[in-house]
Amino acid sequence: MFRATDRLKVLLHHLDRPPAAVTASSCTSAQAVSAHYRVPLRYTLDNDHLSPEQRHFYEENGFLLIKNLVSAEDIDRFREEFERICRREVQVPGLVVMRDVTIAKSEFVPDQRAVSKLQDFQEDPELFRYCKLPQILKYVECFTGPNIMAMHTMLINKPPDAGKKTSRHPMHQDLHYFPFRPADRIVCAWTAMENVDRNNGCLVVQPGTHKETLKEHDYPEWEGGVNKMYHGIRDYRSHHPRLHLVMEKGDTVFFHPLLIHGSGMNKTQGFRKAISCHYASADCYYIDVTGTTQENIGNEIKELALQKYDLDIKFQESWALRACLVQGERTSL
Ligand SMILES: CCCCCCCCCCCCCCCCC(=O)SCCNC(=O)CCNC(=O)[C@H](O)C(C)(C)COP(=O)(O)OP(=O)(O)OC[C@H]1O[C@@H](n2cnc3c(N)ncnc32)[C@H](O)[C@@H]1OP(=O)(O)O
Ligand SMILES: Nc1ncnc2c1ncn2[C@@H]1O[C@H](COP(=O)(O)OP(=O)(O)OP(=O)(O)O)[C@@H](O)[C@H]1O
Ligand SMILES: O=C(O)CCC(=O)C(=O)O
Ligand SMILES: [Fe+2]
Ligand SMILES: [Mg+2]
C-alpha cells in the first residue's frame, strides 16, 4: 500500500474549503478584454507567454497545439522507463497498470505488450519529470496561474486493436472525473511520444465544445465491450464537427476539461504512445458530486479505492491523496 493513509490525514483539512479566493481571481480574468480581438477572455490568464493569436485560439477552440515542445531525448527516456516498468525492473508505489478489457477478461498470460496504460506515476522520478518540464509548465501557467498541482498522470500505450474496437476511447469530457473547480483553471497536457494519426488512433476533438456544460456520462453500449471506467457522453449525437489531431513525436496539445474528445481505434500493429498530465490551479476547491451527473464515476472510484487499497474515502479524498504540487504553493487542493 502506498503512503496514502498518512498523506490523507494531513490533507483532509483542505477539503470543502470555501472557494472565495478562486472566484475573485477568475472574475479578474473574465473581465480582462483583449485589445487585439475585443472579446472578453475567460479561458486564459493575462500572461505574456501566449501570443494574442494563441490566446484567441484557445478561447475559441478549447485547445492549443504546440509543435515540438518536448525533445526526442526526453521522450526516449520516458519510453525506456516505461519499458523498465513493464519488465518489472522498477516498482513504483501507487502505480495503476491498466490492461485492455479483451486481455483483462481472457486466460491469456500478459507480457509487457498487454499494458495499455499507466496511471499515477507521481512516485516515478523519471516519468514524473514530464510533469515538471519547464516548457510545459510555462504553458500550463497561462491556464492555471502560478500555483500548479499535477492532479492526474498517464502514459497511454494504445494497443493494436484486438478486433473488437476496444482500443477506442469514447468521446468524453475529462471534467466528468474531477470533483474540483473552477473548470477553467484545469488543463491537460498531452504529448505524442511518436507520430499519431487516424491510423493508430490519434486524439479526436470537437473544437469549441469547452463552452458547453458538463454532459451526462456512462458506459457506451458497444458490442465488443468497453474498458473499465471508460465512460462516454450519453446519447452522443453532436452537431459539432470533429477534428483529428495529427501530431508528431514531441508535439503537445493543451486542452480544457470540458472539451469533448476521444480517440479512435488503433488499426496498426504498433502501440501508440502518449504521455499526459492533468493540471489544476492549487487555488481550486473540491466539490461534493452527490446528486450530480458525476455521482456514478465518484462511486466507481470510491469502490476501487476500497477494493484495491482498502481505503474507505470520499471521491474528493481520492484526488487529494494523489495530487502533487509542481509549482508555487499548495494553497487549497
Ligand atoms: C486513492 C485510490 C484511488 C485510485 C484511483 C485510481 C485511478 C482510477 C482512474 C481515474 C480516472 C481519472 C481520469 C481523469 C482523466 C480522464 C480520463 O483518463 S478518461 C479514462 C479514465 N479511466 C481510466 O483511465 C481507467 C483505466 N483503467 C484502469 O486504470 C484500470 O483498468 C483500473 C480500472 C484501475 C482497474 O485496475 P486494477 O484494479 O488494477 O485491475 P485488476 O486488479 O487487474 O482487475 C480488477 C477487476 O477489473 C477487471 N478489469 C481490469 N481491467 C479492466 C478493463 N480494462 N476493463 C474492464 N474490466 C477490467 C478485471 O477483470 C477484474 O475483474 P474481476 O471481475 O474482479 O475479476
Ligand atoms: N457510437 C459511438 N459513440 C460514441 N463515441 C463513438 C462512437 N463511435 C466512435 N466513437 C468515438 O469517436 C472517436 C473516433 O473513433 P473512430 O473509431 O470512428 O475513429 P476515427 O478516428 O473516426 O477513424 P475511422 O473513422 O477512420 O475509423 C473515438 O473517440 C471513438 O471512441
Ligand atoms: O490518449 C488517448 O487515447 C485519450 C486519452 C484521454 O482522453 C483520457 O485518458 O482522458
Ligand atoms: Fe480524456
Ligand atoms: Mg470514424
Automatic annotation (TrEMBL):
GO terms of biological process kind: fatty acid alpha-oxidation
Pathway: Lipid metabolism; fatty acid metabolism
Protein family per UniProt: Belongs to the PhyH family.
GO MF, any single term: L-ascorbic acid binding
Keyword Oxidoreductase: yes
Keyword Oxidoreductase: yes
Enzyme class (EC, first level): oxidoreductase
Keywords for this protein: Dioxygenase, Iron, Metal-binding, Oxidoreductase, Vitamin C
GO cellular component: peroxisome
Origin: domain of life: Eukaryota
Enzyme Commission numbers on file: 1.14.11.18
Protein name as it appears in the record: Phytanoyl-CoA dioxygenase, peroxisomal
Species assigned in the record: Scleropages formosus
